[in-house]
Amino acid sequence: APAHPLWPEIERVTLEQLQYARLGVEGGVWQLFAEDGEMKMYKREEEVDGLAVDPLKAVHTVKGVTGREMTHYFFSPDVRFEWETTLEQMKVLETIADDTLVILQIHKRVWPASQRDALFWSHVRRVPNDTDRDAQDIWIACNHSTEHHEAPSNEGKMVRVALTVCLVCQTSIEPPADGGPVTRDHLTCKITYCSVVNPGGWVPTSALRAVYKREYPKFLKRFTQYVKDRCDKQPILF
Ligand SMILES: CCCc1ccc(-c2ccc(S(=O)(=O)CCO)cc2)cc1[C@H]1C[C@H]1c1ccccn1
């Protein structure tokens, strides 16, 4: 593993997020707040110092793509502006490895919140499926707030959010009955997207919850459609 000061935290948080995502939405603590076809979005209403920091968990099933493809496009900074509509600026501050970056993002102002930025490490990895041997490997992309000497101290111009986000994907293949080649029609990707965003500065709780209710379903729907469109007619990446 690369000898980088962040590496132990990246390893720990990524594996913690994988376990957290795999818990699903049991326990009756998750409140379904949005549904669109296969996509189901849940939240828990929590406040930290009077700030709404509502953990979010979404589950979705997408046909025709693999978990590797889904997490690749989520991780890749080169395509982020294609699907992330709330992004205003983005800078890769450090490339720790080809699967690990430090990124500074400035998000568009989302009324009534003032403009915010997010500084986080971003990591993507394949995790062998330890429960079901003949299943495909699991892929996880994880973004977690960090400090970085390269990040311009925005002299109080911007409020910095704290976030932990993961996208966990499990691919299944239903091989064609006639023994023919596996095509995208035989692929199903089960996705769990988890996010906890601390807005970093006070936002009216009801207004922030209205923003989440509007932005998160739009975000996940747009992102997954973007990946389907990108992968269509392309060779499958397992
Ligand atoms: C006051 C807080 C503003 C605010 C800052 C940031 C984010 C946010 C940042 C990163 C990620 S991601 O999943 O890592 C994809 C890479 O961008 C998702 C969400 C969300 C909100 C809140 C506004 C909500 C929202 C939710 C979903 C998409 C966009 N915005």
Question: What is the radius of gyration?
Answer: 18 Å
Largest sheet: 9 strands, mixed
Roughly what is the average pLDDT, rounded to an integer?
Answer: 95
Helix content: 10-25%
Oligomeric composition of the shown chains = single chain
Q: Ligands in the structure?
A: ligand B8X
**DSSP summary, beta strand count:** 11
The 3D shape can be described as: globular
The SSE string, one letter per element, is: HEEEEEHHEEEEEEH
Task: Give a written overview of the molecule.
This protein is of the alpha+beta class and 238 residues long. The protein is built from four helices and eleven strands. Strands 1, 2, 5, 6, 7, 8, 9, 10 and 11 form a nine-stranded mixed beta sheet that branches. α2 packs across α4. The radius of gyration is 18 Å and the shape is globular.
